[in-house]
Amino acid sequence: MKPELKKKRPLRFYLAIGFLTFSALLLIILWLFQTVFLESFYKTIKTEQVKSCAYGLETYLKYGETGKFYDLVTEIEEQNSMLVGVYDTTDSIFSCEYVSSSRPWIRSDVPMSTVYDLYRQATDNGGKVSTITAAEKESRFEMHSRRSFGATEDEARVDIIMHEHQPSLDRETVQILAYACIVPVTDGERLILVESEITPVNSVVETLRYQLIIMTAVILLFSVIIAVFLGKMIAKPISVTNEKAKALAKQDYDVSFEGGRYREITELNTTLNFAAGELKKVDSLQKELISNISHDLRTPLTMITGYAEVMQDLPGEMTPENLQIIIDEANRLNLLVTDLLDISRLQSNTADIKMAPFSLTKCIESIFSRYTKLIESDGLNIVFEHDREVFVMGDELRITQVIYNLINNAINYIGEDKTVIVRQTVTDEKVRIDVIDHGEGIPEEQLPYIWDRYYRAGEEHRRAKIGTGLGLSIVKNVLLAHDGEYGVSSALGEGSDFWFILPVIPTDEE
Ligand code: ADP
């Protein structure tokens, strides 16, 4: 393993860290809400409840009928287990109008000193006050509960005093939430008092704390287990693919990348399978290309050396014909090397394409003039069908090469009628050139490949008759560099129609 790879941690490490962080966050939130904030939440909610009850009472006291008011008090007491008191505070001596509690252990009266106290606080506070008291209220409530079990008030009080002085750890302080508000009414003023017991949450918090400790341990354990499991599930197919990719890098193109459990890895495998296929194709093409080129280079070289040696050994053989053969073969070599250079330049986009407007029609006509000798000697019938002159934008030399290659191919594969038709058709803003022969045609399954470098239809290497095997590849690359369209339609025994389309320059702009 490379040293920089060693420094990197495996996927399952990051997954475990992620899961643990997530669980820790979750647990922290749980701890905070269930232990630290529980009491204040509870108190806030209770206060709101008490306030809303008092508000309901206040509204009824102000606007409602008295009968209904008592119904409402009873309803509040029953539903919310609260103590409700209404005091007439119009005079300096307060009188209790109503006090009741639905909870049996809550004493149904409130000491008048407390009422005075609350009234004073409420007046200071703008008419409303809410207090939470502990010890004194606790005694009151406990005393009531003890009294309800048959003890006298004095007995209960003594009991409470003793109880309060007992050093107790788990005894919890009951708290009383009191809410008082002063309500002005038609015949004076009333004080509404709503009290509710605040159940101590310490024991609940303690229970929750134990639960949370257990939950923390369980959740952390599960996070690690799930992270390891997920890590394995995700990482394993990646490792398998990686091993195969290594084999591919070592030129084992037959390696196959199978499916995978999830979409990403399946896509990666499909891509790698495609890449492996392409690499295999490129590799075999490269091998084929080298063998074809070396074959094509060797044949003329053998001919040249052979003839030169014969002429050297036998002076009588120094004939113009033999010399011509050497010249022809040297030209062939030249042509082959030029074609190869052209193609590599075109494919690497380094070819110098000089775009300029030129007459495509004139260009074809001038190519035709090169064939006059051939037409005369071989009785070929080469026709150029056109009805007007068209101008295109492009590199005239390269386009000439395209047309020349197509016509050459058509002549090489010419049919018995010895006819080649070059047809120029102008449609919309485009010109289409067809080079048609009625020769042997190309089998349909080979049509996609003939544009490839060094592809030759047919098994045997027919160098004697045909060119370098690069002609159509040059055609394709030149047309691609001109953003042109190209194609072929061909049928076995009927001939072929090679065509290309280029945009026309409107004549009036010339
Ligand atoms: P070559 O130098 O072999 O002609 P090309 O690239 O020009 O190379 O053509 C590639 C192959 O396409 C040829 O070997 C031949 O099999 C096929 N081909 C091209 N033109 C024609 C045609 N007009 N008729 C039949 N086959 C053709």
Secondary-structure blueprint:
Blueprint: H1 3-7, H2 11-36, H3 38-63, H4 66-80, E1 83-88, E2 95-101, H5 112-124, E3 128-133, H6 135-147, H7 153-165, E4 175-185, E5 188-198, H8 202-249, H9 263-313, H10 320-347, E6 356-359, H11 360-370, H12 372-378, E7 381-385, E8 391-394, H13 396-412, E9 419-427, E10 430-437, H14 471-481, E11 485-491, E12 495-505
Parallel strand pairs: 7-9
Antiparallel strand pairs: 1-2, 1-5, 3-4, 4-5, 6-8, 8-12, 9-10, 10-12, 11-12
The protein binds adenosine-5'-diphosphate.
Residues 405, 409-410, 413, 437, 439-440, 442, 450, 455-458, 466-473, 496 line the site of adenosine-5'-diphosphate.
Explained architecture:
By secondary structure, the protein is α+β, with helices and mostly antiparallel strands. 56% of the residues lie in helices and 17% in strands. The chain is built from 14 helices and 12 strands. The chain has helices at 3-7, 11-36, 38-63, 66-80, 112-124, 135-147, 153-165, 202-249, 263-313, 320-347, 360-370, 372-378, 396-412, 471-481; strands at 83-88, 95-101, 128-133, 175-185, 188-198, 356-359, 381-385, 391-394, 419-427, 430-437, 485-491, 495-505. Strands 6, 7, 8, 9, 10, 11 and 12 form a 7-stranded mixed sheet that branches. Strands 2-1-5-4-3 form a 5-stranded antiparallel sheet, with helices on both faces. Strand 1 and strand 2 (95-101) form a beta hairpin. Helix 13 runs antiparallel to helix 14. The longest helix has 51 residues, at 263-313. The model is unreliable at 135-171 and 459-465 (pLDDT under 50). Adenosine-5'-diphosphate (ADP) binds next to helix 13 and helix 14.
